[in-house]
Amino acid sequence: ETGVTQTPRHLVMGMTNKKSLKCEQHLGHNAMYWYKQSAKKPLELMFVYSLEERVENNSVPSRFSPECPNSSHLFLHLHTLQPEDSALYLCASSLGHENTQYFGPGTRLTVL
Amino acid sequence: SQKIEQNSEALNIQEGKTATLTCNYTNYSPAYLQWYRQDPGRGPVFLLLIRENEKEKRKERLKVTFDTTLKQSLFHITASQPADSATYLCALETGNTGKLIFGQGTTLQVKP
Question: Which pLDDT belongs to residue A69?
Fold first, then answer.
């Protein structure tokens, strides 16, 4: 694997639930990202953290709340999601200005 | 805003042939462009990066070209194998720290 892990790999939740996605990177990188990937659509960047500071928030609804406690860990807290939020959520990390990104395996989220 | 188009959603070729995938962009030329491979249910894996001052980059059976006049990158896989079957994504840097824009991908199927 790539050195970026994500848990859980699969998640089914109701619209009223609260859950969190976790990402961990063991590569010594200084930037971490959350992406959403829906069927037949390009990867959509949600959040970027650089040196643990959020530098990008792509107009993501407030029902998605990221947290980056240190440079190795990234969370995505979920609450009152909608069925259209069902997708593959990918975490990535990078080092350096050329920004080659290393992705985790993703969490397949289904909102009922 | 920058838009990316990958030539086709799907490409089917016979084993041993060369696969050629196209990535076109509409706006400014990025400082670099990347290609990733994604298998079903997995995160993208970085393959190659090409800078704006480079015409061509090679890695084993892979070759990438970058034409800033045509605003196009071509990705070639020579002597293709069934194991090359996957979705291939191109990504452009946007000039902002940590931000890549991804194309929608081309799914390559190599038949034995």
Answer: 92
